[in-house]
Amino acid sequence: MSDIHQSELASCFDQKVEPRAMKKIIYLFSCLLLITSCGKEEQKSSPQSEELPQITSTKTTETLPLRPKVRLRPYAFSDLANWNNDNLEEALSGFKYSCAKILQENSTYMSNSELRIPTAAYQLACQKLLTQGISTDVEFKHYLESNFLPFLVIADNSDQGKFTSYYEATINASPIQTTLYRYPIYGKPRDLIEFNPHDFDSSLPNKRLVGRIKDQKLIPYYTREEIEKYKISAPVILWGDSNIDINIMQIQGSAVATLPDGRQVRVSYADHNGHPFKGIGSILLEKGYIKPGEASMGNIKKWLKNNPQVAQKEMRENKRFIFHRISQADGPIGAQGVPLHAGRSLAVDKNYIPLGALIWLETTGPDHEKIEKLVVAQDIGSAIKGPIRGDYFWGSGKDDVLDKAGKMNSSGRYFILIPQNKANQP
User: Is the per-residue pLDDT at 109 higher than 90?
Assistant: First the structure.
C-alpha cells in the first residue's frame, strides 16, 4: 500500500468519534468506502498496470522480419568507377535479349518489384535501342548516357551488400541408359501441377506453387529422396555418369553435356519440385564433414567425389529437385527467359530489382580483383535474397571455372539505371 493511502486511512481514524454506536458504525463504514475507492483509483492510474500485456491466449503468432527500407540516390555516369574504361559492347547483346522480353510485358511496373520502375519507361528506351541499330561500344555508351541515369541502391542506410558467383557446369551424359550412364536427368514431370492461391481468393498471396494430385487432393510434390528412390512420371532427357555432377548441375541451374560421340548439348532449367533449397555446403558444415572456410564449391565437389556413399545420403538433405530440358540457346537460360552471358548477367532478388534492368556493379572477384562493369539483371536464385544481393554469372566451364565461381563471396554495391523520359513518371 502506498504512503498516500496510509495517510488517508490514518485520517479516517484520527477523526473525533461520536459516542453513539450507530454513528460509529456509519463513520467506520464511510472510512472503508474511502479506502476501497482509493484502491480502485490506483489500479486505474498505475502506469505499471497499463503497460503490462493482458494475456488472453497461450497461442503465439509468428512475427515476420521487417523488410529493409530501400531508397535510391541519383548519381552521374562520371561518378561510376571505371565507367569510361568498361567494354560496354559486351553487355549490349544480353540487354537486347532482355529488351525483347520487356517489350512483351503488360504490367505497370517492371516485374512488380519494390523498386517501382514504370515498364513503359524501359519499353521506350528499348524501342530506341532496337530501332537505332546500335552495335558498337561508342554508340551504346552514348545511348546509355542520353537515356538513363544511375541510382545507387541503399537499404537500411547502407549501400553495401553481398555478391557471390555461379557458373554453367559441364557433365558427361548419354541419350540411352548404360552401365556407365545410369543416373537419370529428368524433364518436367507430367503430374506436376502449378497453381496460384491468388487465383482462387484475392486475399491470398500472389505466388506460384507446385504440387501433385493424390486422392483428389493437391499435395506437395515428391522430395529429392523420393524422386531418387522411386520411379516418377517424368521423361528422362539424358542419362549422366555421376549423380554428384548432376546434383551440382541442379545447384547451378544448367550445364553443357558432352555426349559419348563428342557432341555437346545444353541442358537448361525447366522447373523445380516446390520444396525449399538447402545448400550442400551448409549441410556438410553442420555435420562437421568440412571446416569453416573450406566450403568453396570446388572443395565441396572434391569431398563429395571422395565420399560417394555419404555424399548420396547428405545430398538428399536438400529436398529441392531441379528438372531440366534440352535447349538450343546460345547460353544457359535465366529466370527472365533469355540466355545468360559470362560476366554480364546477374542474378538478383526480383522482389526488389526488376528483371531486365541495367545494373552498374562495383565489387571484387574471388582473387580480390575489381569488378566494375555494366551487367543485366536476368536471373534469380533461391539464396539470392535482399535489395543489395547479387549472384554474378562467371560463365561455362569445368572445375577451373567452378573453383573461381565457388570462391567468390564479396561485399559491394550497385547502381540501377533508370530511363529518364516522360514515361518514367510514378
Answer: yes
Distance CA 352, CA 162 (A): 15
In the structure grid, which three cell numbers stand for residue 418, read together? Answer: 533508370
Radius of gyration in angstroms for the set of CA atoms belonging to the chain, rounded to a whole number: 32
* Distances 252 to 241, 297, 310, 336, 391 between C-alpha atoms, Å: 18, 11, 21, 16, 11
Distance, CA of 297 to chain centre = 20
CB 304 within 8 A of CB 280: yes
CB 340 within 8 A of CB 348: no
CATH number of 69-177+335-426: 2.40.40.10
Annotate the chain with three-state secondary structure: CCHHHHHHHHHHHHCCCCCCHHHHHHHHHHHHHHHHHHHHHHHHHCHHHHHCCCCCCCCCCCCCCCCCCEEEEECCHHHCCCCCCCCCHHHHHHHHHHHHHHCCCCCCEHHHCCCCCEHHHHHHHHHHHHHCCCCCHHHHHHHHHHHEEEEEEEECCECCEEEEEEEEEEEEEECCCCCCCCEEEECCCCCCEEECHHHHCCCCCCCCEEEEEECCEEECCCCHHHHHHCCCCCCEEEEECCHHHHHHHHHHCCEEEECCCCCEEEEEEEEECCCCCCCHHHHHHHHCCCCCCCCCHHHHHHHHHHCHHHHHHHHCCCCCCEEEEEECCCCCECCCCCECCCCCEEECCCCCCCCCCEEEEEEECCCCCEEEEEEEEEECCCCCCCCCEEEEEEEECCHHHHHHHHHCEEEEEEEEEEECCCCCCC
Amino acid at 332: P
State how far Cα 162 lies from the chain centre.
12
Taking CA 150 as the corner, what is the angle to CA 148 and CA 156, rounded to the nearest 5 degrees?
Answer: 145
The number of beta carbons lying within 10 Å of the beta carbon of residue 323 is 21
pLDDT digits (tens, 9 = 90+) for 361-379: 999 998 889 999 999 999 9
Distance CA 367, CA 37 (A): 77
Per residue in 47-84, pLDDT (tens digit) is: 333 333 332 333 334 444 567 889 999 999 999 999 99
Q: 0.85 cut: is pTM over it?
A: no
Residue 225 amino acid letter:
E
